[in-house]
Design goal:
Length: 104
């Protein structure tokens, strides 16, 4: 008698032979790559805000600027916002957590 093959979804358990081709989760990528990934999201939807973040990046005021964008909806220059798309909001929050102040 022939052996029955299972019907349905394939086995989703991790196999060692597929490990090298597994995409890296964002938290495992190097810091500059993570920052670039998040900035690309912001740049695609809000290029003016992305430019401001690039200017502030590395300074103490950058996180304050990001928090102001996230929490108040304004950019500190009198430009009120209706809101951000989910992916942009997520990118802004991730950038705030990835930011490190460079000593001068």
């Amino acid at each position: 008698m022939s052996e029955k093959k299972p019907v349905g979804f394939p086995d989703l358990t991790q196999h060692a032979e597929y490990e090298p081709t597994r995409p890296m989760p964002l938290h495992e990528l190097p810091l500059p790559t993570r920052i670039d990934t998040e900035m690309a999201v912001v740049r695609a939807h809000n290029p003016r805000i992305a430019k401001s973040i690039e200017v502030f990046w590395g300074h103490r005021d950058c996180v304050e600027y990001l928090e102001q964008l996230i929490l108040s909806g304004g950019d500190g220059f009198g430009n009120a916002r209706v809101g951000f798309k989910r992916e942009v909001l997520s990118a802004l929050m991730n950038l705030a957590s990835l930011h490190e102040v460079k000593e001068r």
